[in-house]
Amino acid sequence: MKQLNILNRIYTLLVIVMLTTTAGLRAESLENNAAEQVVATLQNALIQAMQQGQEIGYSGRQKLLAPVIEQTHDLAAIIRSVLGGHWAKLDSGMQQAIIRAFQANSIATYADRFNQYGGEQFKAAGQQQLPRGRVLVRSQLVRTDDNPVNFDYVLHKTDGGWRIINIVVDGVSDLAMKRAEYGAVLQKDGVAALVSMLEQKTIRIEQGRK
Length: 210
Known about the structure:
alpha+beta; five-stranded antiparallel beta sheet; 5 strands; about 65% helix
């Protein structure tokens, strides 16, 4: 009888462990699906902007994409990461100025680049866990010329859900490119010059699309 009680206890413990593990895996799966949905939301909007690109024009694409980019990207975290040690040295007014300039330029760049449709479609290509609780969501932009473009999205968790903090296109990190470009301006002329550069880039995009 004593041996039977011990076996029952072991069995109960095994069941508890299995249920806990299953619940953990289910929660992780739901989290990963949420990250994939953020990427899908962005990509669906990009395809829509491309399909309607010529009809609605640059300003229409800008209006279409602006809320989606703000919803799917952590733009403040991206610019903080790009500025590195420079960020903490800025007062709150300058921090807000660089965030606004970066946000406007990011939206303008998306609206400028995704402007016409030629049958392209985004295709999910899997995902993986990254250190520090981040997730990598892989996808491809499939084109009619059978030469797909690989998009890898790095997301982190915020109070508002998963947000994109880097995009790697065919192995080229957008975050690394921005650090190199913005860093050169910061070292030479400072943050005010970087704000001005971003504002001028946005103006040139808008003028080029009129």
